Amino acid sequence: MATVETRNIRKSFGSVQAVNGVDLSTKEGEFLVLLGSSGCGKTTLLRMIAGLEKPTSGEVLIAGEVVNEMPPRARKIAMVFQSYALYPHMTVFKNIAFPLKAQRMGTEAIRQKVEWAAGLFGIELLLHRKPRQLSGGERQRVALARAVVREPAVFLLDEPLSNLDAKLRASARDELQQFQRRIGTTTIYVTHDQVEAMGLGDRIAVMQHGKVRQIGTPMEVYDEPADTFVAAFLGSPPMNLMEGKDCLVGFRPEHFLPKEAFPMTEAAPVPFRVTRLEYLGADRLLYGVLERPFPEQKVIARLPSTVSIPIQPGERYEFVVQEKDLRFFDRDAGHRTEARPLVAQFA
Amino acid sequence: MKLVQGTAPVKVASRRVTFAHLRDREEWLGPLMIAPAILYIVLVVGFPFFLAIYYSFSDITLGSRSLGFVGLKNFAAVFGNTNFRTALWNTFVFAVGSQLLVLVLANMLALALLKDFRGKWFFRLLILLPWVAPISLGTIGWLWILDSTYSVINWTLQALRIIGPKARLIWLGVPYLAMGSIITVHVWRLLPLATVIILAGLSSIPRDIHDAAQVDGASFWRHYFQITMPLLLPVAMVALLFGVVFAFTDMTVIYVLTRGGPYDTTQVLASLAFFTGVVGGDTAEGAAISLYLFPLLLAVAIAFLRIARRSEVT
User: What pLDDT is stored for residue A217 in this prediction?
Assistant: First the structure.
């Protein structure tokens, strides 16, 4: 087992800065998720850690050792690719055995190891098949088995679930996490799917334009976003942001509820005119605009099905956000600022 | 459907065959498009081929007006001839030697051209040149390079003091040197096509596969022989098939450089057929010579295409 660290790492392709000064450091056995939209540099960062891409500047450390000049095979890492990258001309057995053969392991030892890795993922019966004869889920297991088989110090996973259908993805997510907990290998996982990130990660690094905007536990990045980007990126629908006098005020749609839902609250009521309602089964999404004294601005409310107060589109209601659920951001830079009274912002 | 039947205007419209109409009907458009190719093959390849078969069983000569059936006499006569057996052996040496070299060199070139480097387009252009230039023109250039008196190779070897100042290698006049020379020129000529084919094959292998092999710890040779080469096999087989058929049937290089000499040591079946049938006037025997390798080539082509198909992976 080992930790991974990057120090002020940069990568540019021509004039494009793909990764722009990232400092990361994993803990021993941690499941760290790199989360960001496509083109944010998360995959490039992962490839630099793997050694498939050379950093323009900065350092990559694995187990405390600078590995910049080491080829991928010397870094004791294993990687699972989005496409799985199985060798199409080899059987499953040979695919899994390939990393061991490269280490010049003996035939009998290879056979035992391959059977052990195949057993971990329940693919013992597929060992004689070729990748083209496998389903998407089976291929993904083979790719994982090939990564596990030589017991690497670090796992690097590049969107390994994105080629699976939704149902399979949920169960694969569950298996992946259980498996990682069991073997306890430090894992870096790249995804653009926030549900995956929140569900899997011990910590999440939210990336944008080649920079890490925030790194923290799922709870931290969701509840205490470091800036407006993180606030708007996480959550579906994202955090509502209102322009106040000297700052931006943010609140989550699920914290914006009818006044009746908080019988004891002393928070000031917010007049909310509902324009559209989406019934999603477990929730109701209310789209609408705020009214005076608040700026006339579009916001979204999310009512769990447990809040059964009837709502009609076109009507005006009094909604409430509790003070503890308000987040304040700098208007220009977007970073978090200290809490202040809501009323003063819109007086 | 009942509604449409019996309504007159619809019927009239469907009978009018315009070009616009034809465009939408694949059962007509397909044959129409492929017709020129079929016509070309039938007239320029098929007709001479069957004519050659017909001639090879006859006693036709360039000057004769009669044409009698003689059975397998021509084939038997040809096989009894030492010139023919020499040419048969030479053909194999020429084809196998040149194709081995082409495969190895084309792989090396393609691997080099796959990488990004400055001025890559210039090297690509240079490598393609022998293929683009007319073969007879290029070969005449080689005739000068390999000339017994003015050879630049000899001059270079002398300047580097590899051979003595008075020594001279007669490239086209000494049996082994002559075979080496025609193989070299043939390789020079076929290399561009093979390189381009193999380059296309290499670029069709997904990058992830190479990355995975790198992460899995494969060394350069293991990576090449266990990952790249098997995935390249279907495409490489096509390149090889082209090359083999070309080496067995084409005689331009030999005709320009050596005319089969010295003492028939570079005579191959294609050139022997030409000298016997066209220059020598014995059309029937020339046809028999040129058809000798047809069954073999057919078998080779079928075998290669089968291997290529079996090794296709996706």
Answer: 95
